[in-house]
Specification:
Strand order of the largest sheet: 1-3-2
Largest sheet: 3 strands, antiparallel
Strand content: 5-15%
Radius of gyration: 19 Å
Distance between the termini: 35 Å
Oligomer: single chain
Number of strands: 3
Order of helices and strands: HEHHEEHHH
Length: about 140
């Protein structure tokens, strides 16, 4: 794997897992220093991430982690809801009490986060955690 692809993957992972927040400025100099590389592969990775929608680059301002528009967040949530419904349907017959209680706790935590208007990154992480738990249960019983 090339250095640029490696840097791109590391930055993408940091964005996905919330280590880099939406709207956060991405300094090429700081990233190069932190990753112990020159600024050239950082610039190339930031351009690639911009093409993929992970970053936004403004002339004379620099690169920032992209913010999801509210309608995209709603679309993502709607798809996740549909998939969760299907997964629940598949697993309803075979779920045990331990797994059911775990899912109930995760769902309560998710509702708490959304009702308190927590940061969208935190909410999306909780949704991902819940969805992953459901999916792992379905895979386990299949």
């Amino acid at each position: 794997m090339s250095l640029q692809k490696d840097i791109c993957n590391k930055l993408k992972k940091a964005i996905i897992y919330g280590k880099l927040s939406p709207g956060e400025k991405l300094s090429g100099f700081e990233l190069a220093k932190k990753m112990d590389v020159s600024r050239t592969p950082i610039r190339e990775a930031l351009r690639r991430l911009q093409m993929e929608g992970y970053t936004t680059v403004s002339p004379n301002k620099g690169a920032y982690v992209s913010r999801l528009p509210p309608e995209e967040i709603e679309d993502i949530y709607n798809v996740i809801s549909l998939l969760e419904g299907y997964v629940v349907e598949l697993s309803a017959i075979k779920i045990n009490n331990t797994e059911l209680n775990r899912l109930i706790k995760l769902k309560k935590l998710l509702f708490f986060c959304t009702s308190k208007k927590k940061d969208i990154v935190i909410i999306l992480r909780k949704i991902l955690n819940f969805s992953t738990s459901l999916l792992s249960f379905v895979v386990m019983i299949s």
